[in-house]
Every structure is written in structure tokens, then in C-alpha cells.
TrEMBL record:
Pfam families: MMR_HSR1. This is Bex protein. NCBIfam families: small_GTP. Residues 40-156 form the G domain. Signal peptide: none annotated. It comes from Budvicia aquatica. GO terms for cellular component: cytosol. The gene is era_1. It comes from the Bacteria.
Length: 295
């Protein structure tokens, strides 16, 4: 067992009434929750600030690993490694490029989308229209039957929205007129993309404007199994109480769902199922209390 998993020994003590093989099965599955490495897709036209956003949020520097190829198009994969944990970012191509390559992109996205926990789609606040993004969403993403909950839109470069000269540099925030224009822009984007499941947050990665709100929205958009590992990659300033509480809650829910799936499994004898039911609440509580040890 890995050193940072020694906390599981405390959990093992609560499973002494179970046969060794069932105990090990539970511990192995708990270990898989702790070890989960998130995979995030990132999309957007050239120049929207995808790299700036990643560098603003995460502690580790981008390190290219490999290319995922589909015909002549590629999606570049980056590993962000901090300690023993890795966050994988996949820079997804295609937005704003030739529509003649649609079939190639459909093939690529049909391969990649099932492997990602979330797609962060970066838009630029001072763009007058999002027709190329809208086209790609409708003709590639939706046709690949991507779950809308997997897509999180973010509006970058908020400081450049008109009237850009009114940006409040002292307080690092938009003027009233800029704020109103950002609200109008967000409404227009919502209509373009069929009212996304998650809030669209205006940010400026360069100026670190509104990034805390974006990170909290990001955490709320991730699947439960990915949020705890995500916190390990974030810069300390973004680990707010909201972020930590969400990660801990998701972690507890993931453990609860794992144990519930074992309870519902027809492969376990009824007597052992009863024993798992009896200790489930205590295990979930103990795992949540050990969250900071694991992460």
C-alpha cells in the first residue's frame, strides 16, 4: 500500500468482520477513488487565452506528453504533475478552422470526449460574434452526443470588452458599462449554445479577475470523482472554503456510492451485505475526516 494511503489502515479496522477478500476488494476500490487523475479538455479559437488561463489556475507548468491523432488533425495532451498526482489537459483543435474537416473532427471527438471529465470552452469577451464556436458546438460536439453537463464555457479577456478604456485598474474590475456589456454578452452566448448547464463566468486570466468565482464554478461542474484531485493542482489562493467543502462532500458521496454499489451487488452473500450496510456510515464519515490526509 502506498505511503499516502496509510489512512486506509484505519478503515481496514472497521472491516474486520468481513472476509479478507471482501475487505481487500473494498480497500482497492477506495484506493481507486483516492488515486483518480482528472482529464480536462480545453477548447477555443487561437488567441482566446487557453494557456494563460491554465497558467493562472494551476501550480505546475504545462508539459506536453503526446498527440492524439485523427486523420490529419491532432489534440495535444499535457500532464500537470504536482507531487504524486497528475492532471491531464487535452488541447482540443477545430474551433474556427475549415468546415471541410468536420468528418475528421467528429472522429477525433468521438474518441476523446468519452475520456474527459469536463471540457472548458474558452470564449473571448471582445469577439463580436461566436458563429464559428456555435457551428462547431452544433455540428461536432452535439453530433458526438456529448453530455451538455461536460461542457463549461468561460468568457476570458473581460478587460477588453467595450468601453475597454473604462476598466478599473485600481480595483481590477469592469466599469458599470463594461459590466452591463458583459451581462449582455453572456446572455447572447447562452442563447447561442442552447442555454448551457453551468454558469458562464467572465474572467481575465491575465489580470486574475474573477478567477476565484470561476474555480468555484469549475468545481461544481466536475464529476464527483474528479474534484478532490483537482484541488491538489490549484494554486493556494483558489482553494477557498467553498472549493474545499465541495471536494470533501464529493469525496464522501463517491465513497458512499461505491459502498452502495457493493451492497446492491448480487455477487455478495446476504450476510456480508448486511455487515457492509452496518459499517457504511462510519466508513464514509472516516474517509471524509481523512480527506486532507489523502489530498
Amino acid at each position: 500500500m502506498k505511503i499516502y494511503h496509510t489512512g486506509l489502515r484505519l478503515i481496514e479496522k472497521q472491516l474486520t468482520a468481513l472476509p479478507h477478500d471482501i475487505t481487500q476488494r473494498i480497500l482497492k476500490r477506495l484506493e481507486s477513488i483516492i488515486d483518480y487523475d482528472p482529464v480536462i479538455g480545453i477548447m477555443g479559437k487561437t488567441g482566446v487565452g487557453k494557456s494563460s488561463l491554465c497558467n493562472a489556475l494551476f501550480k505546475a507548468e504545462l508539459s506536453p506528453v503526446s498527440d492524439i491523432e485523427s486523420c490529419t488533425r491532432e489534440a495535444q495532451r499535457f500532464n500537470l504533475t504536482w507531487g504524486h498526482r497528475t492532471l491531464t489537459l487535452i488541447d482540443l483543435p477545430g474551433v474556427g478552422e475549415s468546415q471541410s474537416r468536420d468528418d475528421e473532427y467528429r472522429e477525433l471527438y468521438s474518441q476523446v470526449l468519452p475520456t474527459v471529465d469536463l471540457v472548458i470552452w474558452v470564449l473571448k469577451a471582445d469577439d463580436r460574434a461566436f458563429s464559428s464556436d456555435e457551428y462547431f458546438y452544433q455540428h461536432i460536439i452535439e453530433q458526438c452526443q456529448c453530455d451538455p453537463r461536460k461542457v463549461l464555457f468561460v468568457l476570458n479577456q473581460a478587460d477588453k470588452i467595450e468601453p475597454y478604456r473604462e476598466w478599473d485598474t485600481v480595483n481590477n474590475q469592469p466599469s458599470l458599462r463594461q459590466y452591463q456589456n458583459l451581462e449582455s454578452k453572456i446572455q447572447a452566448i447562452s442563447e447561442c449554445f442552447n442555454y448551457p448547464c453551468h454558469p458562464i463566468i467572465p474572467i481575465s486570466a491575465k489580470d486574475s479577475y474573477n478567477l476565484t468565482t470561476f474555480v468555484e464554478t469549475l468545481m461544481g461542474s466536475l464529476p464527483k470523482q474528479a474534484s478532490s484531485a483537482m484541488t491538489t493542482q490549484l494554486k493556494e489562493r483558489y482553494k477557498t472554503d467553498v472549493v474545499i467543502e465541495k471536494a470533501q462532500s464529493d469525496f464522501g458521496d463517491s465513497v458512499d456510492e461505491l459502498l452502495e454499489s457493493m451492497i446492491q451487488s448480487a455477487s455478495l452473500p446476504q450476510v456480508f451485505t448486511f455487515l457492509i450496510i452496518k459499517v457504511k456510515e462510519a466508513i464514509v464519515s472516516a474517509m471524509k475526516s481523512l480527506w486532507s490526509f489523502f489530498f
